[in-house]
Design brief:
about 200 residues; five-stranded mixed beta sheet; Sulfite Oxidase, Chain A, domain 2; mainly beta; 2 helices
Length: about 200
């Protein structure tokens, strides 16, 4: 197991780690659209598709096989709360590129989740060393309300980009806004720039 810390972690004091317009919380709030989906490890799959040389589908057992990484990261929600030093464990996004080869024109990824929820990110942002698909939180199995069996964790973006209940990763040449992005949320969602809401793009 490898340990990593998000760059803003131990290097800055608490005040410098909280972006503008945010307040500190001590417990991770539960926020999501729709009900918690059921989970059956025998039928669950994660599909990697789109602009790839060959589509890849992981079973739950197969996905749990790659090397596990543990990160400590500050996270920030568009609704105004921040939580410091959260602990996540799972598979680095970039580790998946050992199993699937995006085509040269692939520049964006649309994350597909249960019940049709989606969110979008540049492929380059997902290759950071603190971005992972997590199945553990605070050294315990990830609770269903936090995204079990699998959620994306992207600490450098507002937390709606860290989608829960991930089921597919679609590699694309052009950006395509996701569920909240088409409803007025900012397309990039950088908390340090307060990119909460605005025009797409």
């Amino acid at each position: 197991m490898n340990g990593m810390r998000s760059p803003k972690g131990s290097q800055l004091n608490t005040g410098e780690r909280i972006p503008p317009g945010q307040r500190l919380v001590s417990r991770l709030p539960v926020l999501h659209y729709g009900p918690i989906p059921p989970f059956d490890p025998a039928t669950w799959e994660l599909r990697l598709f789109g602009l790839v040389e060959e589509e890849v589908v992981f079973s739950y057992e197969q996905f749990m096989a790659p090397p596990t990484v543990r990160i400590v990261a500050d996270i920030h929600c568009v609704t105004g709360w921040s939580m410091l030093d959260t602990v996540w464990e799972g598979v680095l996004f970039r580790e998946l590129l050992n199993h699937v080869r995006p085509q040269p024109e692939a520049r964006y990824v649309l994350i597909h989740c249960d019940y049709g929820y989606t969110t979008n990110l540049p492929l380059a942002a997902l290759l950071d060393d603190d971005v992972l698909l997590a199945y553990r939180y605070n050294d315990e199995p990830l609770p269903p309300q936090y995204g079990h069996p699998l959620r994306l964790v992207v600490p450098k973006r507002y937390f709606w980009k860290s989608a829960k209940w991930v089921r597919g990763l679609e590699f694309m040449a052009r950006d395509r806004p996701g569920f909240w992005e088409v409803r007025g949320y900012h397309n990039d969602g950088d908390p340090w720039k307060e990119e909460r809401y605005g025009l797409i793009g």
